[in-house]
Amino acid sequence: MTAAPIRIVLVDDHPVYRDGLGVLLGSLPGLEVVGVAGDGAEAVAVVEDVAPDVVVMDIAMPVLDGIAATRRLLEDRPDLGILLLTMSEDDETVFDGLRAGARGFVLKGADQDDISRAIRAVAGGDAILGSGLANRIAGYVEAAAAGAAGAAPFPELTPREREILDHIAAGRSNGQIAASLYLSPKTVSNNISSIFAKLHVEGRAEAIVKAREAGLGRL
User: Fold this and answer.
1) Are residues 48 and 128 in the same domain?
2) pLDDT for 132
3) Among 66, 111, 142, 185, whose Cα sits 20 to 30 Å from the Cα of 88?
4) What is the C-alpha separation between 88 and 13, in angstroms, rounded?
5) Whether residue 108 is found in the same domain as residue 52
6) Domain with 189 in it: what CATH number?
7) In whole angstroms, what is the distance from residue 192 CA to residue 169 CA?
8) Does the pTM exceed 0.70?
9) Same-domain pairing of 119 and 39
10) Which of 69, 98, 132 is the last residue of a domain?
11) Tell me, what's the pLDDT at 38?
12) Is 64 a domain residue?
């Protein structure tokens, strides 16, 4: 049986770019563009109407920007995968996007394979952070982590949950965590749900930032 295609909504205020990206994605196997929007407010309405799996959204837009739209969308659809489009991975924008609950970023101008890979990863619940961005996050949090050295982070978590969070912060998928810790995928998934609730985070990307700020992810 053929798997259902990943349903995508594209959000960008530049029609030429948006239409071009739509044609590109629509030509790839396993991807289907089911809606488009020209700003964040329109995106909220379109997502409510078509219920996509992934939203690929520009950050700088009129009416409602991509980060504010991300927050609003995830209030109603916390499971929605949001991939933000950006011209440059400046630190302030990146951290704002991750805190809003976006699962990752893709640079405008990225090639077809990179965009497709990012969408598929986000649809599967993974976070997408380019190597340059990941390195900057690691450098940013080292000072904070050094101040907390010797103290066990996140005392509200069980030892098993903290161990799983450490693997999440290292960028490992649920399947990789399950194999590494000799756990069932369901057990890993249940623990991750508990971790997100206890840390008050919207999703994997925000959990990664929070965990790395505490010094985790150096497996």
Assistant:
1) yes
2) 54
3) 142
4) 17
5) yes
6) 1.10.10.10
7) 12
8) no
9) yes
10) 132
11) 95
12) yes
Q: Which of 132, 163, 183 is the last residue of a domain?
A: 132
| Dihedral over Cα of 75, 122, 89, 113: its sign | negative
- CA dist 162 and 172 (Å) reads 14
Q: In angstroms, how far is CA 85 from the centroid of its own chain? A: 12
Q: Exposed, middle or buried, 58 (CB in 10 Å: 0-12/13-18/19+)?
A: buried
Instruction: Count up the domains in the chain and report the number.
Output: 2
pLDDT for the residue numbered 148:
46
**Rg of the Cα trace of the chain?**
17
The reported pLDDT for the residue numbered 65 is: 93
| Three-class secondary structure assignment of the chain | CCCCCEEEEEECCCHHHHHHHHHHHHCCCCEEEEEEECCHHHHHHHHHHHCCCEEEEECCCCCCCHHHHHHHHHHHCCCCEEEEEECCCCHHHHHHHHHHCCCEEEECCCCHHHHHHHHHHHHCCCCECCHHHHHHHHHHHHHHHHHCCCCCCCCCCCHHHHHHHHHHHCCCCHHHHHHHHCCCHHHHHHHHHHHHHHHCCCCHHHHHHHHHHCCCCCC
Q: What is the CATH number of the domain that holds 124?
A: 3.40.50.2300
Low-confidence ranges of the chain (pLDDT < 70): 1-2, 88-91, 130-152, 219
Range of the domain at 187: 151-213
Residues 32 and 120 in one domain: yes
How far is 39 from 66, CA to CA, in rounded Å? Answer: 8
